[in-house]
Amino acid sequence: MDTPSPSSSSSSSPFDLVSSALGKYIPRGGAAAADASGAPGETTARVRVHPNPAAGLQEQILGAVNLDRELRITRSNLDAPVFAGLDVVTGSPFVDLLPPWDVPTVTRRLRQVLETGEAHVARVQRLRRADGSELVVSMSILSAAAPQEGLTVSLIAMARRLHLYAAETAIGTSLDIGETAQSLAESLLAWGDVAAIDLDFAVWTGEGVTEHGQGRIRLRRAALVPDRVWPEGYVTEGDDLPKDASHLLSQAIRRDDAAQAIVIPDRESIERVLGSPKLVRALVPSDRSAGVACIPLVLDGSPPVVLGVAEVWRRADRPFNDSELLDLQELVARTSHHVDLARQHQREHTQVLALQRRLLPRTGGDTVETASVYQPATPDSAGVGGDWVNSFPLPDGRTALVVGDVVGHGLGAAATMGQLSMEARALLSAGLAPDEVLEHLDKTVTMLDDAESGLAAGYSALGSTCCIAVYDPVSHRVALSSAGHLPPILVLPDGRAAPLAVRPHPGLGAEFALREPFGVHTFAAPPGSLLALYTDGLVEDPAVPIDEGIGRLADAVSTVHPWDVLEEAARWVVSGLSPQRGRDDVTLLLARMIGYRKGDTATWRLPARDDAAARARTLVSALLREWRTRDDTRDRVLLLVSELVTNAVRFARGPITVRLIRAGHGLLCEVGDTGNGRPRLGRGELLDDGGRGLHVVHRLTARWGVRWTDTGKVVWAVVAR
Hints:
Layout: H1 14-22, E1 62-67, E2 73-77, H2 103-116, E3 120-128, E4 134-143, E5 151-157, H3 160-171, H4 177-188, E6 194-200, H5 201-205, E7 219-225, H6 243-252, E8 254-255, E9 258-259, E10 262-264, H7 267-274, H8 277-283, E11 290-299, E12 305-315, H9 322-359, E13 368-375, E14 385-393, E15 399-409, H10 410-429, H11 434-448, E16 465-472, E17 477-483, E18 489-491, E19 497-499, E20 521-524, E21 530-534, H12 546-558, H13 566-577, E22 586-593, E23 601-606, H14 612-626, H15 631-651, E24 656-663, E25 666-673, H16 694-700, E26 703-708, E27 713-720
Antiparallel strand pairs: 1-2, 1-5, 3-4, 4-5, 6-7, 6-12, 8-9, 10-11, 11-12, 13-22, 14-15, 15-16, 16-17, 17-20, 18-19, 18-21, 21-22, 23-24, 24-25, 25-27, 26-27
């Protein structure tokens, strides 16, 4: 069948063409969607359109153009007089109908619909008539209805009120500041040749714009249309306006402390107002004579708050009339609150991201090398998620590695994330074991979910996950506990990599019937081992099982060479595994175990007898001479060991363990016993369990503390050397 020419359109009306294309987006079987006149076996849903039978072609504002996969016109129905002058030729590229500067943007959109099948709906677009004039339309791009291939482009000639409605609908679809400004600029292009949106810098940062005084506004260009190569010096998207330009614009739109639109009708007036060739180059988009309308984006209030300025430029031979200026003001006024919503979203996003970055580990200490990567989900998510990682040296020389995933996004998740992270650090530093820390975090999450004591109504952190690992650099062993978190990956020095066999456990705040004691998984991590802790965003993929995702991570981590820079390796692993369009945050913590050298540590086991203190002093004294420790340091260490061993003998049962570690600028002394009393420095300089000498310990050391073990406790102390 021959392809109909544009002058003699096909038998299909524009309504039929658009209706067929829209069929794939309408749920089948619905009474409103299905065409009752369709054939009995027909399965393609159609849209019912009921044009007024009495209306002639004079009132028709809908047209349609079919394109092949090369974006050439194959069929069109633009018979209505409103489309007169459009040079539609079968076989010609559709982009021939566009102004040259719009060709790259529209071509990108057309190809995107071809590739993805996702419709691009209701964008304001200008079409070029043969006589050089332009027609403003609302353009939608749809995949053609089967069995046809290619695209169907619907064109609606825009009456003013229809344009205002379509523009406002398109602008409020994103919480991203840049996208919101871009949508507004594209809508404003219907009234001019160039549209720009300049926003107060505080809008970008989420600051309180109400605090800005008159004349102090600082503007940054948020959007500029159309896409084209602009003259040198012109302020383009992402650039800050010159200080003088920001001041002039803010003063011009404020009269008697009230924001109002202004119009500068021609180039001569613009140059006179700006008063500087530099400002003219920065603000005027063309050397041709031009006029501009500046409309403030204002939030209602007392006083009103100016968020920025919308600028619409057009040729001087097309001056703005009062009706057009009112339409511009109405559109900008209707959409200012969308800009403010994006500002508030940006503020929350920035606050949560700052907290998240703050929780990232700064250092792993001298015995562990760490590197972490945090990659937030797409900006259109409801804020940054609750993923967090941390690594920090404990006071007793061990290193803690923590990873967690708090349920939800936004400030509620951020507050919970910060509280759990700080609580875990405090408890681990106080000497609690990983399983005991998780028990406390479990109670905290349950408490936060309480309607009266919780963080916020409607937010629940129940089901959050956490994994805690504590590395002992002397024994080269790791104690690990998990609350519903995915298993870490351990890479041994020989390159073998596998997820740890951690016993499954419900997440934090689980129902009472599901609760059971948290287990502790202890394993060897020889020097050179690599431990990878992560959140589910790195390994989850709807197309593959979670075990396969974990296996991919193990394969990737196993390729990290011992000589590789760990930060670069972490970024490489994340870039290779994380999805292109993430639905969840991605977090990875790599820890390379180093430990202490064998010659920097010594451990002795002594029977709990009266001569234990003397025996300990003899052994420690010989070692300190071997380490060539200064005399004053050696005297302090010997007195410290004597006091701690004496106290352990008096109140403990079973053998006593003495350990001495040479670490950095200090000596770490540890005395372990089987007692469960908690040593405290009291006013009477006595131990709570009756022991003496803790006041001496306190005076001799830089810091000291207690940690509990399965068989008792360890009192540790650091002496500067």
